Amino acid sequence: MIFPEYRARRLRQNETFRALVRETTISPANLVYPLFVMPGKGIREEVSSMPGVFRISVDQLAKEAKECMGLGVNSVLLFGLPEKKDSKGSGAHAKDGIIQRAIRELKNTAPALTVCTDVCLCEYTSHGHCGIIIDKVVDNDSTLEVLARIALSHAQAGADMVAPSDMMDGRVAEIRGILDENNFHMLPIMSYAVKYASAFYGPFRDAAECAPQHGDRKSYQMDPANVREALREATLDVEEGADILMVKPAMAYLDIISRLRDEFDLPIAAYQVSGEYAMIKAAAANGWLDGEKVMHESLLSIRRAGADIIITYFAKEMARLLNG
Fold first, then answer.
1. Where does this protein hold Mg(2+) (predicted)?
2. Single pTM value for the model
């Protein structure tokens, strides 16, 4: 007599069988590690709300890059803390700005590392918003030119990819245009195509010192209730020239990752954000769950939903686990 219901059980009886039939896998090569870079020398400053995550000075980047690449994490995403902020975020596109210096340092000391850069204004503006404020509101169109200047400055410094996170309408086309005009035709854009106005960003805003000084970002980030809007936003970014589509946050929006995977043939990225990371770390520190297993399961769920790329603060920790 044949018992088909035993098929799955027969293939689960040992790790070799389980590995042979495993439908979803994670590799260190799928992971991107975010880095917070700040002015100064010899600085390695832990973010209190993100245990294990540090703000570091430019001179510490070579060591960080060597560790990442030794683990097989071959890509990083840079965020900068400038020395000074102003209402227009002018430090974001300064030739000798913090990110521009960081890019040059990494390309000089770890040329094989893929250096992605966040393109936004929130870390650089005194008001903490992602765009230029006119008449007390973030003005979409006047922000586009500044974002394009930022992206170009990153490209000129040696970035391998730019990642606009501002959510202004039309910014992918503006960035693609200025890159092409300056012979950076081959520089890809990883667009934060679907970025929700989420409550999960709190620890990041601590780390990058970029919380809005007034109001919120709901006028330009997406309503967490909306799915069809996500598809519209992603479609626009594809039409404007995006090479990779990102969903942010990840774990609370696995359905959105899955919908984008079904709708588009471009690579899909997902950002496991600071709040998602901090919750797991806090629960593990209190002994409420097994932090390593939950880390693994959470990242597996993001891959299973359809993400090709995962930006995560767990990148190095997960790579150590995968490498045994």
1. 233
2. 0.93
